[in-house]
Structure formats: structure tokens, C-alpha cells
Design brief:
By secondary structure, the chain is α/β, with parallel strands linked by helices. The protein has helices at about 15-20, 25-40, 65-90, 105-115, 135-140, 190-200, 215-220, 225-235, and strands at about 5-10, 50-55, 90-95, 125-130, 155-160, 175-180. The chain binds 3-methylbut-3-enyl trihydrogen diphosphate (2 copies) and magnesium ion. One 3-methylbut-3-enyl trihydrogen diphosphate (IPE) binds next to strand 2.
Length: about 240
């Protein structure tokens, strides 16, 4: 059986999705939460063992306080409503990022949700909240370590047409494959995740080495015609 994947998603475009309909930005975030629920529930069946999603960056504190307050309320509601569903679906929910700037009640909700879903064995769903990859790297380095809370990413997805990391999993994406879509996050569906994963499976990952001979075969590269594949086949 294929190794289970670590997929990371930068869930972007909630505000644009709502704005294009003349709706408040928070409505976009609400719809985004519904997308996350369906994607997270389908992901284990698509071979995903870890799903890490960017929900609120440390730079998102710069947004208007009504939007920040609305997002924090939405996280609390999401954690409350998803705990039971995660338990039923065998999903372990974890929250990554700083907790010292979150309200006490939200931290308690996070801890309760993490405790109750701790035995979920089908997939780990990691929500990055008040997350900054630079901060995580600097913090680990100050203890003489490298960041170890999140494993290496196989596939990094970003919605809404932007092609940047915005301080998400910089360390862990060293050899990630990237997949971008113009669809906003509320428009994203399980079909899009399936498409991203099927395209990922066609990529040749080399990690600085030469492609393994079996990969040149599965990709249909003929070592007699492809000089790079020929070198790999000899190795
Ligand atoms: C992503 O959607 C969600 C968060 C950053 C919390 P945005 O809110 O960034 O939506 P756009 O990019 O403004 O459309
Ligand atoms: C990144 O999106 C953060 C999340 C998706 C939670 P942003 O919308 O904040 O990123 P920039 O500002 O476009 O880079
Ligand atoms: Mg955005």
C-alpha cells in the first residue's frame, strides 16, 4: 500500500468569495469552515494520513478587530461541533501555533478537543492558528533544535490564485510538491483534492538524488531514450 501522505493547505480566498457576492467577509470564513469539514472527512479515504491547514496566520492579527473576533468565534464553534464528528471519523485534531495570545476560553476548547480526539488513528488534522513558521523555526533554534511539531509536507495546496507560502511551514516544505488553483477556498471541493493528489502521484520526487529506477518505469520513461533515466537505471 502507498505511504500515507502529508497534505498541507493554505485555505485562501474566503474574503474574495464573499466580497464578489456583496456579502460580509465573515460569511466567506463560515463557508470556508464547511469546506474544511467535507475535505477533512474525505481525506483519509484518499490516502492522506496528515492534513495540516492554515487557518489564521500570526500576521492575520493585522486585520480589523471585527474580522479577527469573528474568526476566533468561528474556531471555537468549529472545534465544538467537530469534536464529535472527528471522534466518529477516527480523526485526531491538533492545533499548531502560539497559544499565549489566544483567549483563555479558546485555549480550553482547544485542549478539550485535542484530548477527546487523541485516539483518532485514521488521520491527524492539524489546524494552524496564530501560526508563523519563522517564529516556530526561531523558537526551536533558540533551544538548539529544529522544528519537530509538524512532519515534512508531501503536497502543498494553495487556493485563490496566490502562489506564495505566507510564512506557512517553510521548514517542512523543503521538498514539498506545490499545487495551485484559482478556485477560492469556499469553492474548493473533494474533487479538487482528488485532482491535486492524482497529479502529485505523477510527479517524480528526487530529494536531490536521481529518480529511482522503478519511478522511471511507472512514469513510462524509457531508459533507452531518456539519458537521465538511463543513469538512474544503472545506479
Ligand atoms: C483565508 O481567506 C482565511 C484567512 C486568512 C483567515 P482570506 O480572508 O485571506 O481571503 P482573501 O484572500 O481576502 O480573499
Ligand atoms: C494566509 O493567507 C493565511 C491563511 C490562509 C490563514 P493570507 O491571505 O493572510 O496571506 P497573504 O496576505 O495574501 O500573503
Ligand atoms: Mg487571503
Amino acid at each position: 500500500m502507498a505511504r500515507r501522505l502529508h497534505v498541507a493547505i493554505i485555505m485562501d480566498g474566503n474574503g474574495r468569495w464573499a466580497g464578489s457576492r456583496g456579502w460580509p467577509r465573515l460569511e466567506g470564513h463560515r463557508r470556508g469552515a464547511a469546506t474544511l469539514r467535507s475535505v477533512a472527512e474525505a481525506a483519509p479515504g484518499l490516502g492522506v494520513g496528515e492534513l495540516t491547514v492554515y487557518a489564521f496566520s500570526s500576521d492575520n492579527w493585522k486585520r480589523p478587530c471585527e474580522e479577527v473576533a469573528g474568526l476566533m468565534r468561528l474556531f471555537a464553534e468549529y472545534l465544538e461541533s467537530e469534536t464529535r464528528r472527528c471522534v466518529e471519523n477516527g480523526i485526531r485534531l491538533r492545533v499548531e501555533g502560539r497559544r499565549d495570545r489566544l483567549e483563555g476560553a479558546l485555549v480550553e476548547t482547544i485542549e478539550r478537543c485535542e484530548r477527546r480526539t487523541a485516539d483518532g488513528g485514521r488521520m491527524t488534522l492539524r489546524l494552524a492558528v496564530d501560526y508563523s513558521s519563522r517564529h516556530a523555526i526561531a523558537e526551536a533554534a533558540s533551544r538548539g533544535r529544529t522544528p519537530d511539531a509538524v512532519p515534512d509536507v508531501d503536497l502543498m495546496i494553495r487556493t485563490a490564485g496566490e502562489q506564495r507560502l505566507s510564512d506557512f511551514l517553510l521548514w517542512e516544505s523543503a521538498y514539498a510538491e506545490f499545487w495551485f488553483t484559482k478556485k477560492t477556498w469556499p469553492e474548493f471541493s473533494v474533487k479538487d483534492l482528488e485532482l491535486a493528489i492524482s497529479e502529485f502521484r505523477l510527479r517524480v520526487r528526487k530529494f536531490g538524488a536521481l529518480p529511482a529506477p522503478h519511478e522511471t518505469r511507472t512514469l513510462g520513461l524509457d531508459p533507452r531514450r531518456d539519458p537521465l533515466a538511463a543513469i538512474a537505471a544503472d545506479a
